[in-house]
Amino acid sequence: MTTSSSVQATGTVQAPATTKGLAGGPPSGKIAARAKRKASVWAVRMAFIAAILGVWQWLGIRDGGLFVPTFTDTVVALIEQARNGILWPAVWASNQSLLIGFPVSIVLGLLVGFVLGRRRGVDRASSYWLDIALVVPMVALVPVIIVAFGLTLTARVVAVFLFTFPVVALNARAAVRVPSAQLEEMAVSFGASPLQVWRTVILPGAAAPLFTGTRIALSRAISGMIVIELTLIPAGLGGTIIKYTSQFSAPNLYAMTLAVVLEGLILVGLATWLERAVIRRLKGVSRG
């Protein structure tokens, strides 16, 4: 009786474990550890943001809000700008140049970078132009852009393009050199076509550097969008910032600057989410 009872007990204990192993699901301990890590990361982020906002609020209260408004006054001013029809037209006017110039720079930058990265002769002959474009301060080229294109949307698009294109092209050139030559040779030996080599070997290996370069280029595109508006073409968000600066309206000035920061954070966050989704997709393609 004792032996049969122990066998029955053993069977009843081991059966769920066998079923769990066949199911192939992750152990609950790993899920809990992963959730704990995410909670810790978000706790650190929220604590850092709370510290910055707390210092901001304290400085505004200490100085009386003349030069540094409190965070609460800034948020109230931002809400009022949104209600009064000031914020959204300025956002749209600024982002027209971003919506046109950034995709064009991404497409052309990737094409040029891929060619330079895979054709060493072309790289040696022409890559120094990208190095020059990356070194030259783009702010110094803004007056040249204005003289060439005038105070138009085209000038703002060209400025965004010049701020972005060198970063995209240089990162793409470096990214397509990352995959191992042995992996490419093995894929070719198994009968893979050039397109299949790109789809299953080169792009999955280069995805992370490419998206990193895209995020950096996005930040530079936003900078170029605002810089040209602050310097020579007072339009959109930059023009509104100049107006509030001349009026010594600190809450409105900080509110418009906060709008630029929030837009940058949202766009970079979307780019990060897209990066993770595409990399997961490419990894699945490379395994398949």
UniProtKB/TrEMBL annotation:
It is a multi-pass membrane protein. GO terms for biological process: transmembrane transport. This is Taurine ABC transporter permease. GO terms for cellular component: plasma membrane. PROSITE patterns: ABC_TM1. SUPFAM superfamilies: MetI-like. It is found in: Cell membrane. Gene3D superfamilies: MetI-like. Residues 1-29 are annotated as: Disordered. Residues 91-271 form the ABC transmembrane type-1 domain. Pfam families: BPD_transp_1. Residues 1-17 have a biased composition (Polar residues). Belongs to the binding-protein-dependent transport system permease family. PANTHER family: ABC TRANSPORTER PERMEASE PROTEIN HI_0355-RELATED, ALKANE SULFONATE ABC TRANSPORTER-RELATED, MEMBRANE SUBUNIT. Its main location: membrane. CDD domains: TM_PBP2 (cd06261). It comes from Mycolicibacterium agri (Mycobacterium agri).
